Amino acid sequence: MKRYLPFAALFVGLAMDILFWKKTLGISFTIFIILCLALGFWLLHLQHIRPARNTFFLLIPILIFCALTFVRKDPLTTFLNYVLTLFSAAVLAMTFRSGNWIAYNVRNYLANFFQLIGSLFVHPKDLDPHADPQQAVENPAPNRKLFLSILRGILLALPVLFIFTLLLSSADMVFAQKLDDLFANFRMVNIGEYLFRGVYILLSAYFFAGLIRHAAVRSQQEKLIGVDKPLFSPFLGFTETSIILGSVILLFSVFVTIQFRYLFFGESNITLAGFTYSEYARRGFVELVAVAVFSLLLLQGLGAITKHETRQQKKTFSILMTGLVATVLIILVSAFQRLLLYESAYGFSELRTYAHVFMIWLGILLVAVLIFEITEHQRVFANLALVVLIGFTATLNFLNVDAFIARQNINKAIQGEDLDVAYLAMLSEDAVPVLVKTYSSTEIPSTVRDEIGAALVCHTTINETENSQTKPWQSFHLSTWRAERAVEEIKENLAEYQVQEDTWQITVISPNGMEYACQPSTLFD
Predict the structure, then answer these.
(1) Looking at CB atoms within 10 Å, which of 134, 241, 296, 334 has the fewest?
(2) Would you report the helix, strand and coil content of the chain in percent, each value rounded to 5?
């Protein structure tokens, strides 16, 4: 591996430049991740370094979510796909030889992440911790010899190539013209750009080499924190803990009781209290996050610091924690119902859809934490949160958020509700195939069809600058490709719409003479 690592690292740096320089993200990210994985496993295999069995499980989220980065385009789903891919890849490097990630707690993740970052800048000196020191003495600096041989070969080849290039360019005018075009790209005005690209190619190569060295050396040396000896011994008495949990459960119970009438009797009680749907839903979601975080902190914190001197105390503590989780779950149901009321009045949006999916997975996390707290497996909290994050992201990908929003809002419009054309136009390309399919249907009212067509024209006009540019293959995105193909099928019908643009607003006039603004007048939640 010592022989091939510099060349493989340089290859990764060049690949990064080819795939990402002045190109929008698309299939390039997936190719880059797979390339790094393949080279990394190959280099470590040359050194006879085998991954632990648990390490292979990390390949599942890496490969799935890196592939989904060029399938979905709504903001949060795309962001989480990138984050989970990079996070899983980092954990793979941290635990390549040990496979200890399955027993990590929060402190393990933090400590090893900082160590991984350190390895990127200061490479571990020993590629193989079991290497024979005598062998290193007998074979000094093999990499230096190879490097010097390559350097001498390049220096000797340059004058030969120069002579033959002059002869060939004199013999053929077309060849000479191609040479002129090639060297025209290396004008002095581009020197700064080439220097910058050269620096980040070398930096990328250096960081990749550090990543491989970390996987080879430190992934076996890392130790689990807090297994042999916890960070601190339990010090809080059972009576104090019971008072804390009991008072919080009482508070949550009062809150749930007050919420009962709003949960089951809807709009009249909300407006009677002086709140709008929007205010009610927003405040409900903030309460949800605050209560959930506080409850998780209580479950984790009190479980770690409370002394259980008798079996009865342990049983009572488990009952109190169960009561706490139960009341929080009821509050989650209340918040879920509030968003349903809001959506029934104002339709679906990205934030509201994210919130609904988040509530479900947050409830799952609370129940899981409770179960493992009762069974005294507190170390698994970090991985439980990771599993929930993976489940949340996978659900968003499977749901196809923007397509779901378009479908739901159009169904409400068919039933007589207003359709927000400007919001539909703001959705990503994920929604376009649904819009085109519905627009082509003969079973929807003509008014709704008119509005969907306006939304498609608005979407096309807003993204016209980006769509008109010829994109390199590295920027290929499945969602964009599907959207462009779908719009092409109804291009002649959309040509009947007129577009009026001014400094502040884009307006679309339908064939029926209706005007639709392409930008929303208010901020959506």
Answers:
(1) 134
(2) 75, 0, 25
Range with lowest mean pLDDT among 270-279, 365-374, 442-451, 475-484:
270-279
pLDDT of residue 140: 47
* Rounded Cα gap, residues 382 and 106, in angstroms: 5
Please write the tens of the pLDDT for every residue from 53-62.
Answer: 889 999 999 9
Please tell me the pTM assigned to this model.
0.82
**Residue ranges with strand state E in 336-413:** none
**What sign for the dihedral angle of Cα 223, 227, 228, 232?**
positive
Confidence of residue 427 (pLDDT cuts 50, 70, 90): very high
DSSP bridge partners of 506 = 501
Indicate if the pLDDT at residue 121 is higher than 80.
yes
- Residue 141 Ramachandran class (φ > 0 left, ψ -120 to 50 alpha, else beta): left
**Cα–Cα dist 355/339, whole Å:** 8
**HEC profile of 154-202:** HHHHHHHHHHHHHHHHHHCHHHHHHHHHHHHCCCHHHHHHHHHHHHHHH
pLDDT at position 354 over 50: yes
Q: Which of 382, 258, 235, 252 is nearest to 322 (CA)?
A: 252
Dihedral angle sign, alpha carbons of residues 469, 472, 478, 484: positive
What is residue 117's DSSP assignment?
H
Average pLDDT of the chain is 81
Give the HSE-up count for residue 234: Cα atoms under 13 Å, Cβ half-sphere: 15
Could you give the angle at the alpha carbon of 183 between the alpha carbons of 177 and 184, nearest 5°?
85
Give yes or no for a contact between 1 and 455, defined as CB atoms under 8 angstroms apart. no
Q: Please give the Cα distance from 216 to 51 (Å, whole number).
A: 9
* Per-residue 3-state assignment (H helix, E strand, C coil) for 324-347: HHHHHHHHHHHHHHHHHHHHHHHC
DSSP run (H or E) holding 506? strand 506-509
Question: What CA–CA distances, in Å, run from 28 to 139, 278, 481?
Answer: 40, 40, 15
More confident residue, 393 or 154: 393
Q: Which residue has the tokens 């949340």?
A: 392
